[in-house]
Design a protein that fits this description.
The complex is a heterodimer of chains A (286) and B (305). Chain A is an all-alpha fold and 286 residues long. Chain A is built from twelve helices and one strand. The chains are: A mainly alpha (286), B alpha/beta (305).
């Protein structure tokens, strides 16, 4: 009789391979749902185009003759907003929906009784979410850029990637917090995660500068990681700001937020898991 | 044909003592709050009405020896699945303790998880994925090498009467019986030392049921697996189990060998020699297996029993 395997890498290797289980499983699911994935991609492209067209129409909307370079800036501003928001939403949704999805499939008990740590479980899910979000957003960026013939000659893509990576950590942590809600409420939990997203969308300057927000909302805007991410990506793409200039004002706050939200999100999730196991809510279908 | 037992990687064998206790349950207690008050419209709620409490597992104590096939019989809602979930670390005890080969399910949660696996009445899978994709997902969670897991999955499913080519079809295209066989393969893939079978043959046709029962016996013979089985099938319990406990309203009302139970009940009802396990069940619980389904339905919906 055999029980405990001793493969290479010890406990760390085991957890790494456990995290890969979630990536591989989700890739298989992505392939099986390819037609729906295409529909979702088409919707995302149309959504990005619709928002970006507001920039091109700014002259007609306001009745003022706006110079083409300013219209281009406005288009880029909205395009970055819609793409970064799409990226963040995908990361957030894939992590927060993971519990509901497994509950719907009925597999949640098998995943929760597997001998892996909850950190491995959630980070495996997060790793797939980031890869999927990059893939999705890159396609949308390519199509929207071609559509509007935007000038990205000044863009610093390296700096943009660093900001995007640092910001992803924060959203992985927020996703862990959001994944708690379906554990606590099988029926309404997933819907409640949309409240978190809506709040971040409102306060983070996705489609407008945070300076237009009322004074009482400004403090919230300054603690939202999406604010720093959007400002950083816009500075890198629109003005070609390098990583050195973005480090202390944008990248560092994002890293600190990630370092805070991931461990606290994990602890909160584990506490919610104990509650679900104590009350019998783990299995019930929503 | 036998299961491949050679694993092409270093494995730490679990060493057992003779007559080792595989599963030790002492005073296990699990309650659920039904919160009936919250279901009422607010104008009908009493100001301080306490939530209604259901005792699903009521101070159960029993032990299962290594290599034993132990059966737990009970009607729907009697607490069988709750007890299995407590052993599986999927529910948290309100009192008492449960040990698997000496490891406490609460304190040594991950060690226990490595030693057990569970097959439930519902074949729960990602239905769009193929059987092999689902099994590989499970294998990776238990840190089994891909090649080994694939070979073992094929061997197990062939023994259960499933052709290899079906492994590559989405689960949604398989019958309930086939899906349940894949669920059993998932449970056995990790070579658990304690296998928890929660009504594994419910809904299977007689042939599939026979395949599964034969395989459970084979697992015990060849791999020394300890099996904790809940079932509604009295013949199955009689045929497979070394000992059987009967559970009613969360309490163990009898525990003996199938022969011992039938003899004891036969002496009471005067049918000594012809007493069946169904007679035993009826006598001990005062119910047939079917007639309390409606009564227990609310409980199941609430707690997934």
């Amino acid at each position: 009789m055999t029980t405990l395997s001793t493969r290479r890498g010890g406990a760390f290797g085991r957890e790494l391979r456990g995290a890969y289980a979630f990536i591989e499983r989700n890739v298989h699911l992505f392939k099986r749902y390819w037609a729906w994935e295409l529909v979702w991609l088409a919707y995302s492209i149309v959504n990005a185009l619709s928002i970006t067209f507001i920039g091109r129409a700014s002259g007609e909307i306001t009745g003022v003759a706006i110079p083409p370079e300013q219209i281009n800036t406005f288009i880029l501003y909205l395009m970055v907003g819609t793409l970064v928001w799409h990226y963040l939403s995908v990361v957030f949704d894939l992590i927060s929906e993971s519990i509901q999805w497994e509950r719907w499939e009925g597999t949640i008990e098998y995943t929760f009784m597997a001998p892996i740590s909850r950190l491995t479980h959630l980070l495996g899910q997060a790793a797939f979410a980031v890869l999927y979000a990059i893939f999705h957003t890159a396609i949308i960026l390519a199509i929207v850029s071609a559509f509007f013939r935007v000038d990205l000659s000044r863009a610093d893509f390296g700096a943009m990637l660093v900001v995007l990576t640092a910001g992803s950590l924060s959203f992985i942590g927020l996703g862990m917090y959001a994944a708690i809600l379906p554990l606590l409420s099988p029926e309404k939990g997933l819907q409640m995660t949309n409240i978190i997203k809506a709040l971040v969308l409102l306060i983070s300057g996705v489609y407008y500068p945070i300076s237009v927000l009322p004074d009482w909302l400004q403090p919230l805007a300054h603690i939202s990681p999406a604010t720093y991410m959007l400002q950083g990506v816009r500075a890198a793409l629109l003005e070609g700001t390098g990583i050195g200039a973005l480090w202390s004002g944008h990248v560092l706050p994002l890293l600190i937020t990630g370092l805070l939200t991931i461990p606290t999100g994990l602890l909160a999730f584990m506490r919610a898991e104990r509650y679900a196991k104590a009350t019998g809510k783990l299995k019930r279908n929503g | 044909m036998t299961l491949p037992d050679t694993i092409p990687l270093p494995i730490t064998p679990h060493t057992f003592e003779p007559d080792e206790t595989a599963l030790d349950i002492r005073g296990a207690l699990k309650r659920f709050g039904r919160e009936e008050a919250q279901k009422q419209p607010f104008w009908k709620r009493g100001p301080r009405k306490p939530p209604e409490i259901t005792v699903a597992v009521d101070h159960i104590s029993l032990s299962v020896r290594r290599g034993e096939i132990f059966g737990l019989l009970g009607a729907n809602g009697s607490g069988k699945s709750t007890l299995i979930r407590l052993i599986s670390t999927l529910l948290i005890l309100d009192g008492g303790e449960i040990r698997v080969f000496g490891h406490d399910v609460r304190r040594d949660e991950r060690t226990v998880r490595r030693m057990i696996n569970r097959v439930s009445v519902e074949a729960s899978f990602f239905k769009k994925l193929s059987a092999i994709e689902n099994l590989m997902y499970a294998a990776r969670l238990y840190d089994l090498p891909g090649d080994y897991a694939r070979r073992r999955a094929v061997a197990i499913l062939q023994q259960l009467g499933l052709r290899e080519k079906r492994l590559y079809e989405p689960l949604e295209q398989m019958s309930r019986g086939m899906q349940q066989k894949v669920a059993i393969a998932r449970g056995l893939l990790t070579a658990p030392v304690l296998l928890l079978l929660d009504e594994p043959t419910t809904g299977l046709d007689p042939r599939s049921k026979h395949d599964v029962q034969r395989f459970v016996l084979q697992m015990r013979e060849e791999h020394d697996t300890t099996v904790f089985l809940t079932t509604h099938d009295m013949d199955e319990a009689d045929r497979l189990c070394d000992r059987i406990a009967v559970i009613d309203s969360g309490r163990i009302v009898a525990l003996d060998t199938p022969h011992g139970l039938k003899t004891a009940i036969g002496a009471v009802n005067g049918k000594n020699g012809s007493t069946t396990m169904e007679d035993v069940f009826m006598a001990l619980t005062g119910k047939s297996l079917d007639d309390d389904f409606e009564l227990s339905h609310d409980f199941e919906v609430q707690h997934g029993e």
